[in-house]
Structure formats: C-alpha cells, structure tokens
Amino acid sequence: MGLNNYMEDIVFNAIKELMKETEYCSCEKCMYDIAALALNELPPRYIVTERGELYTKTELLHKQYPIDIISVITRAAEIVNKNPHHDHID
After folding, report:
1. How far apart are CA 53 and CA 20, in angstroms?
2. What is the rounded CA–CA span in Å between residue 36 and residue 39?
3. Which of 6, 25, 47, 59 could form a disulfide with 52 if both were Cys (CB 3.0 to 4.6 A apart)?
4. Whole-structure pTM value
C-alpha cells in the first residue's frame, strides 16, 4: 500500500462531484489548484495499511469532516474560479 494521505483521495473525489454540479472550470490545472488550496486547510490523514484506511474512513464518516471538507473545497473552488491560472475559453 505505501504511505498515502487519504485526505487527498477524499478531496479529489469531492472536487470531481462538485464539478458535475457546478459550472466551475474542470480542467486539470483548476482541479489541482482547488485541491492544493483545500488540502492546505484540511488536516492530513496518512495511512500505511488497509486497517489504517478502514479506521480513517470510519473516523471521517462519524465526525463533522464531510461538511467541513465540502465547505473548504467550495471556498477553494470559488477562489480558483475568480482567479484561474489560465484564460477561459468561451
């Protein structure tokens, strides 16, 4: 399995879902910018075993984390949408 920040997986999955529901730019550059901003505000959740992954998944489901994660990602998406690192093509 190796060392993995499980929060990255959660954030990228949530960003993909957000992009389906909004008109934010969903190019790779914008998605990485959103992820970087969000991950800098969220606590890392490093795992190295399947047992650790299961524990982390369970922990994240039972706390305020899902709401906090979506809130942080939404704020990050708004920032990136207002200040993209590329020109929008209309």
Report:
1. 27
2. 5
3. 47
4. 0.83
